[in-house]
Each structure stands twice: as structure tokens, then as C-alpha cells.
Amino acid sequence: MRRRMAAVVALVVGAATAVLAVAVAVNQFPRGLGVLACVVIAAVAAWFGVLRRGIARVLGLTVAALALAGAVIFVVAGGKFGVDLFVLAGLLVTLAATRASFAAHVDLSRVPPPEHPVLFFNPKSGGGKAARFAVAKEARDRGIEPIELKRGDDLETLVRGAVARGADGLAMAGGDGSQAVVAAIAAELSLPYACIPAGTRNHFALDLGVDRDDVVGALDAFVDGGERLVDLAEVNGRVFVNNVSLGLYAEAVQRSGYRAAKIRTILDTVPDALGAGGSELDMRWTGPGGDGHRGGAALLVSNNRYRLGRAVGSGTRPRIDDGVLGITVMGAPAGEGQRQRPWREWSAPSFEVDADRQLPAGVDGEALVLDTPLQFRIRPRVLRVRIAHQHPGTSPSALAPEGLRDGLAELVRIALGRDGHRVTEAAA
Questions:
Q1: Which residues are bridge partners to 413 per DSSP?
Q2: What's the whole-model pTM score?
Q3: Do 351 and 378 touch, CB atoms closer than 8 A?
Q4: Whole-number Å distance between alpha carbons of 408 and 24
Q5: Residue 389 main-chain phi, psi, to 5 deg
Q6: 253 membership: H or E segment, kind and range
Q7: Which of 55, 148, 353, 421 is most buried, judging by how many CB atoms fall within 10 Å of its CB?
Q8: Lowest mean pLDDT: which of 1-10, 135-144, 232-241, 361-370?
Q9: CA within 13 Å, CB half, 98
């Protein structure tokens, strides 16, 4: 019923907002054109600035700032600023209601709990979430043995030691890098695994269908949880649960001043990588058509495909059991006489990136330097994940359609109560 009501709100408020926006555009045509021109100038000037140093950078970023200020002046000077706010509010309400409409909860098959489950927790991860939520005590109350990861400890050694003592279920409360270590061993030994969202961002938990706001409740996965099989990915034999980033961001995080001044360090990296004569990001890879390519401002290889660039479910993976890598290349140069988009995206069970040097990489958020060539591969459905029955059990974008037309049609189906088959497919 909540999803149906949210769908009705999204359809009604969305339609009203669209009508209001058209009316504003017609009644205030010159002002709207001025706003658009300022935004375009700002985008071009900002791109010019970040590719250069010194006075050229200052000039480009200054023009961008002035153009954005001009857009604000156009809006305020229109004399009907309240109407613009109504349009903005309508867009925000429509987006929120649409997200609520596509949220789902699937009933995973119940399985017997492990007899000797073990929880590994990093007390410093996520700003001290493990201590704040008393996960060690909560684990003991549920018959789960807690093991603290202390400074100098090797997590893999701790996990394998616990298995040797009879652990038959493995859980990790920490960041995604630690989740990958425990998940890899669980998959290797075919043991059930639980992801406890005690890290900073908990992207893996989100796409698994774990409620990131319910750290303690996630422990119920080893009490009365359901089970699903998901994929893991590897780069040069190292397991990752989310993604490996190469290129601009990975280069920047290696620099000594990154932690003290992140934005400035990234800006200083851009001219070296993308400016005239920039060669630091010279990577070689093969596209989906079998043709070889060089370069790219950034390259992302993920454990299953991310949904990118959409308002609903963007930045998440609709599925994590499709048996493919998600590959996205930003800014790959086109061949002579060719034109192409500044980014391309595809899926494949394996992928290789080569270079004439070692490549800096961000592996599940951890800064590493990897030997080339980088060999990526997917390991389909090797991880037995336990999820608490009160948690969603599926990605927030699992039921969200890909395009606007499909989205409108699905909202209508939800409002009419005719979307049950999609929830069944997600559970399957």
C-alpha cells in the first residue's frame, strides 16, 4: 500500500510540476534562455580551467563562477522567484516519491542458522560505529563470537584461525575492503557470510539489500535470515566486492598531499593527465567490439554493472549476481576522424588493462599500486550471503526501470497494484 500511494503521489505531483514548468518557460522565455546560456558558459569555462595551471586556470574558473552568478541573477531578477521554487519543490517531491515507489522488500528463502558463527569487527571503521552500536555485545547476545581487529593484526590470518577452530559462519563489521577479505574466504570454503554495515559508506551492503541504517539488526542474518548467492570479482587474483578505479582519481590519491587537500590535489593531477602532452594515464585496453584502445581519463571495473547517470537508483547495482563485470571508460580518445561520446559502458566476464608501468588503483576504496597487465574476472554466484529477514534483501535499483518511458509505465502499474511479478523476479 505504501508503494502504491507513493506511485500516485509521483504521478500526480510530477504531472502538475511539468505543466507548471512549461508555463514558466513560456511566460518567462527570455530569462530562461539567459539562464541556459550562463550554465553552458560556466561548464565550458570550468573544463578549460581544470585542464590548465596558473593564470589560465584562474581565468577559466573565474569565468565559470561569474557565469553561474549570472544564472542566479537571471532567476532572482525574474520577479517570480516563488514560482521557480514551486517547480523545484515539485521535482524533489516527485523524485522522492518515485524512489519510494521502486523500493522493494523480497522474501529470501530461510535457512538454518550456523552453529558457531563469528563476527570480525574493526572498532575504528566508520568513525567508531562498532563501539557506538555495541556490536560485540549484540553479537554475543545472539550467540555470535566477536573478534576485534586490532592494530597490526592480519585480518586473513584471524579469519582462517577462527575457521580452524570450528567457525561455520563468517561476518564482518567494517569497510568494504575488509568485507572483501572475509567474503573471499567464505566463498573459498563455501561458508555463509554476513555483511554488517559498520563502515563509512557500506556500498556492498547497499547493493546486497542490507539496511545500512540498521547495524545491529544486520546481525540477525545469523539468527533468522535468508540466503542468496552473489558474485565476487578479482583483479590479479585479489578479490573485490565493489570496484577498481584506474586513472585520474587513482593517480590523485597516491600523491602525498591528497589527505590534507583532496580537491586541490585532484585539480593538480588533471593537467598532468589530461592537459596538453599529458601521458600519465596511458592505459591499453580492448573495447566491446574487440578493437584496441589507449588512454582514458578514468576507468572503472566493477563487480556487476552500476546504474550510472539516472536519478532513480543511480550509483547502485541493480543486480550483483549477473555473472559479469561492469566496465566504464571516461574520456577515452577517439581514433582519427572519429567521433564518440566522452564515456562508454559495457559488460564482460573478463577484462584486461595493460600499461608500460605499474598502475595506481583504488580497490574498494584502498589506494594500491598494481603490476600490469591487470587481469579482471568475475566469479559467478560463489558467495552465500545471509541477510536479516527485516532488511530489503535486494538492491534499491533492482526494481527501478532503465528509462523514462519504462519508469512512467511502471509507476502506473504500481499505482494500479499490478507490479507483483517484478517483486517475484527480484526475489528469484
A1: none
A2: 0.74
A3: no
A4: 23
A5: -65, -25
A6: helix 248-253
A7: 353
A8: 1-10
A9: 26
Edge-to-edge strand ranges of the sheet holding 243-247: 343-348, 325-330, 298-303, 243-247, 359-363, 366-370
Q: What is the DSSP string of 371-399?
A: PSSEEEEEEEEEEEEEEETTS--S-TTSS
DSSP H/E element including 370: strand 366-370
Phi (first) and psi of residue 267, to 5 degrees: -60, -40
Q: Helices 404-415 & 2-27, crossing angle to 10 degrees?
A: 130
- End-to-end CA distance of the chain, in Å? 22
pLDDT at 324 over 90: yes
Cell of 134: 555495541
> Three-class SS of residue 422?
helix
Give buried/exposed letters for 167-183 (b at 16+ CB in 10 A, else e). bebbbbbbbbbbbbbbb
- Residue 92 gets which letter from DSSP? H
Cell of 268: 593538480
What's the Cα-to-Cα distance from 70 to each of 37, 48, 58, 124, rounded to whole Å? 10, 19, 18, 45
* Tens of pLDDT, residues 397-427: 776 666 667 777 777 887 887 765 455 545 4
Neighbouring residues of 74: CB distance < 8 A, sequence distance ≥ 6: 31, 34, 35, 38
Using N-to-C axis directions, what is the helix angle for 81-102 and 54-77, rounded to 10°? 100
Residues 6+ apart with CB under 8 A from 356: 282, 372
- Per-residue b/e over 13-49, b at no fewer than 16 CB within 10 Å? bbeebeeebeebeeebeebbebbeebeebbeebbebb
Give backbone dihedrals phi and psi of 227, rounded to 5 degrees, phi first. Answer: -130, 140
Q: Which of helix, strand or coil describes residue 339?
A: coil
The Cα-based distances of 241 to 59, 178, 369, 378, 424 in angstroms read 42, 10, 18, 10, 25
- Cβ pair 231, 304 in contact under 8 A: yes
The C-alpha atoms of residue 314 and residue 316 are separated, in whole angstroms, by 6
Q: Rounded CA gap, 31 and 25, in Å?
A: 9
Cell for 165? 577452530
pLDDT tens profile 136-162: 999 999 999 999 999 889 999 999 999
Q: How is 14-47 classified by DSSP, letter by letter?
A: HHHHHHHHHHHHHHTHHHHHHHHHHHHHHHHHHH
Helix or strand or coil: residue 287?
coil
